[in-house]
Amino acid sequence: ILVATCDTISLKGSTESSQFPSNFLFGTASSSYQFEGAFLSDGKGLNNWDVFTHMPGKIMDGSNGDIAVDQYHRYPEDLYLMDLMGVNSYRFSISWARILPEGRFGKVNRAGIDHYNNFINALLHKGIQPFVSLTHYDIPQELEGKNGAWLSSKTQEDFKYYADICFRFFGDRVKYWSTLNEPNVVAIRGYRSGIYPPCRCSWPFGNCSSGDSEKEPFVVAHNMILTHAAVVGIYRTKYQKKQGGRIGIIMNAMWLEPISDSWEDKLAAERAQSFYMNWFLDPIIRGKYPIEMQEILQSDLPTFSKHDLEMLKNKLDFIGINHYTSFYIKDCIFSPCEPGAGASRTEGFALRTAIKNNVFIGEPTACDWIFVYPQGMEKMVTYIKERYNNIPLFITEYGFCDKENPLFTMENSIHDIKRVEYMNSYLDALATAMRKGADVRGYFAWSMLDNFEWLDGYTIRFGLHYVDYATLKRTRKLSATWYKDFIANHKAHNFSADGAPQEQQLTR
Ligand code: PNW
């Protein structure tokens, strides 16, 4: 049901979709644990999130992803909705434990292979490019239990084995691969604050029983960086020439703005970015950890051997960033800070805050970490362009959240004007960065549907489609209709410029 058309909203500085190149990917994003459900179906093994969500007290509403939005079974309907929006790409992740129920050891699960084969074929049949992550926070429980997940260098071998299987079975049709989704978030939340599995930390407020927040995140990151490089190596030598795809990594990327013009705060903002995003991208692209990390962490930062450095060289076809939000950064080296996010040594002594002179950096949302600051998109993209030589970039996620509350009826929820404004303003900012030369290739809205939002369970909604969790019925939100119009305009413009018939493009 459509409650309003886009004509009823007036958008400031409306972006024209014509500003994007004709082969630009406009998509939506998802991940296997948050979407698939079918957690024990067809031979799938348990993964770390299956086990974690079943522990009491971990998830806000006591929920889990056992069923999630059941995309495993309902993908034909979801494809229909994607087709209605006119997206030309869909980002999803493969469930590692569905392919290898016991991790590396044990056999490949044929039913898992069949499922993704069918799904990929169905996407392509609709003209939708699969944009696939090999893992999105999930790891087979066997590996978490035996290896301590990413803490062990053994996991590198397991992941290489798994990645090779995916390239072999799906790579003839998948042209965009990402190795890891937000490895920075995995290292930080799994091994520093311990709020995500495997829940390791040593910080007093962290509520973990084992771990070392000062050291383990860096060991984990080191393993992940080397694993990424090794997997890209496998793709390059065995598959890329024949299959012709591209491979990258996806980072969580917040724009971090100095809270003042002082050189102390400017340096702090650089440090904060180095300890957050550049932590992974610098080694992969520049062959070394950021200098600020080396200086502050000293021997707690692992080092790369000669062999590692050789392996790291040129191991990226594109960067993917998940960019939702921005924060201010205040220096904590030259003037002392209260403890808080960013202030520790492991984060570069750079306090993160959303408030300056009692004013938020952007409009707050139902998520305490998302502030609507479209300028951050332009700044983030420009920063990456300059630091990393304009390597092709995808915005692999951006999104706006609402929270369930008594006033939040389905009618309110599907009339999501705020989400439309967010998307419009962020696209506008992206177009500005592209006009100034940034090589951006695609844009994926988080998310296709409302879904299982990790620690927040089903209390928070990010979807362009509403999901009624009692029936799993999907209903289009205003944002989905807005996106459809936006994409249709884009196609119409680009095709008319090419001289191709316009009507055909407008009838979607
Ligand atoms: C992403 N932060 O996570 C994930 O890739 C998605 O699975 C998730 O549903 C989505 O964002 C919305 O939360 C994030 O610290 C993790 O700013 C951390 C941050 C942002 C996003």
What would your notes on this structure say?
It is a single chain. This protein has 508 residues and is an alpha/beta fold. Helix content is 41%, strand content 16%. It has 17 helices and 19 strands. It has an 8-stranded parallel β-barrel with strand order 1-2-3-4-5-7-14-16, surrounded by 5 helices. Helix 3 (71-85) runs parallel beside helix 5 and helix 13 runs parallel beside helix 15. The longest helix is centred in the middle third of the chain and has 28 residues, at 216-243. The model is unreliable at 1-8 and 497-508 (pLDDT under 50). The structure holds 4-nitrophenyl beta-D-glucopyranoside. 4-nitrophenyl beta-D-glucopyranoside binds next to loops. Belongs to the glycosyl hydrolase 1 family. Keywords: Glycosidase, Hydrolase, Signal.
List how many beta strands DSSP finds: 19
The main sheet orders its strands as 1-2-3-4-5-7-14-16
By helix and strand content, what is the structural category? alpha/beta
Q: From the alpha-carbon coordinates, what is the Rg to the nearest angstrom?
A: 22 Å
Percent of residues in helices comes to: 40-55%
**How can the largest sheet be summarized?**
8 strands, parallel, barrel
Could you say which small molecules are bound to this protein? 4-nitrophenyl beta-D-glucopyranoside
Number of helices: 17
Strand content: 15-25%
Q: Based on CA inertia axes, which overall geometry fits? A: globular
Mean pLDDT: 93
Poorly predicted residue ranges: 1-8, 497-508
Straight-line N-to-C gap? 17 Å
Family: Belongs to the glycosyl hydrolase 1 family.
InterPro entries: GH (IPR017853), GH_1_N_CS (IPR033132), Glyco_hydro_1 (IPR001360)
Keywords: Glycosidase, Hydrolase, Signal
GO molecular function: beta-glucosidase activity
